[in-house]
Design goal:
single chain; about 160 residues; mainly alpha; two-stranded antiparallel sheet; 7 helices
């Protein structure tokens, strides 16, 4: 059975820490999170596997599950790095889904098949999203009332 911990993770500097500064509690204040990340960043600067850790953080971005610090970078810093190197900075749809076919222009056979299934279901009226009854969407077409818009120095009516 394969280990859930990769080889490089056992050599990481954070593996020897008794406190988890890299993943502060969700209920921590912004100041507490910042202080925790500052301590974690000092550990990361002398870590022999910082690059591998950052790589894992970018992979976790694509899975939509990045929490805490990886490779000395917070999630916003990881997203910025991912954009700079041409990688997706958000969750990526899995292959074999219509979302992957449509959003990523993927033409793998499993993505094409997922799109074909969706289109067939849609034509039969059984696909997602569920078709709304006419009474459900008619109120959405009603015109909006004109509302006053406050502009600096004067009052105008919205178009």
């Amino acid at each position: 059975m394969p280990s859930l911990i990769e080889d490089w993770e056992t050599r990481a500097a954070c593996a020897r820490s008794l406190t988890d500064y890299w993943h502060p509690d969700e209920d921590a204040t912004a100041a507490q999170r910042s202080a925790s990340f500052a301590i974690a960043r000092q550990w990361c600067l002398r870590c022999p596997v910082q690059t591998e850790c950052a790589r894992k953080g970018i992979v976790l971005l694509n899975e939509g599950s990045v929490e805490g610090m990886y490779g000395g970078m917070t999630p916003p810093e990881l997203r910025e790095l991912a954009r700079k190197i041409g990688r997706s900075s958000r969750k990526v749809a899995a292959h074999g889904s219509r979302t992957c076919y449509v959003n990523n222009f993927c033409r793998r056979p499993e993505c094409k098949a997922a799109n074909a299934r969706y289109e067939a279901d849609r034509r039969r009226g059984t696909g997602e999203p569920a078709m709304r009854a006419e009474a459900d969407w008619r109120p959405l077409l009603a015109p909006l009332p004109r509302m006053p818009v406050r502009m600096p120095g004067r009052l105008r009516l919205a178009a």
